[in-house]
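Researcher: I'd like a structural prediction for the single chain below. Treat it as a standalone chain; there are no partners to consider.
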Amino acid sequence: MSKHFAEKILRGLFASILFLSLLGSEIQAQTKPPFTNPNWSKAYPAFKIAGNLYYVGSYDLASYLLVTPKGNILINTGLDDSYALIKSSIESLGFSLKDTKVLLITQAHYDHTGALARIKRETGARLLVNGSDEDALRTGGKSDYEMGKYGETFEPVVPDELLKDRSTIKLGGTKVKLLSHPGHTKGSSSYLVKVKDEDRSYKVLIANLPSIIIDGKFSAVAAYPDIQKDYAYTFKAMKKLDFDLWVASHASQFNLHKLRKPDDRYDPTIFGDKKAFFEAISDLEKAYQEKLKDEGPK
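Model: Treating it as a single chain, here is the predicted structure.
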């Protein structure tokens, strides 16, 4: 091999390495969350909520595991660095992440979908989502009406099945009903599931609370022309919900750390404060009504 030819190969190799390095940096930059909260990555001991429903999320980012004889259902996957935390939480309960058969989400934002693609890839689980959030998932958040301004904030992932309001997900005797509650994202969803233990059964609501994330007017959101109408629908629908226990997408939203301490004994009833739920909805609706004033007279 001539010296000139060897130098040419080395230059080409160096250029390729540099390109891949820059490409990797670009991808990392694209998927970097715009902001985080320390409590989103802080570990919290997994625990049994009621029956076959368990909390396996972080101190504030809620992830839920429904355990069935035919495999498990995992709802929400936190940030991209939540993978190890969720895996460890599931294992601490005596279960395995590999037994996940179905993946669900409450909303297509990076703080709930960060580890979604990796867990789907590693478990082979089927991803079932509200159809209105499909595009946001496929683009890693780039098409989201508000968060899209930050570019790709989580690894893109392709759903296996698109659901709609009142769709039922069945696995191993457990039935989960999707409730479409759009506004926060186009496909924001809550879930109703009946679980039971030795004493009784409970209808559990896993709620996605309709907080407003835009600063400007509803009418200025060109990427989501139905946003105002969707929020109005969601508030009306959520005020009519019937349930025994409730939790939410964030632990802080249902006051988890006021309700229980890590060493507390099993007690599903601590999640039965319906008044707190409807007060939370009322407070959010007041913020919505206040924002409507920005629209001016019709």
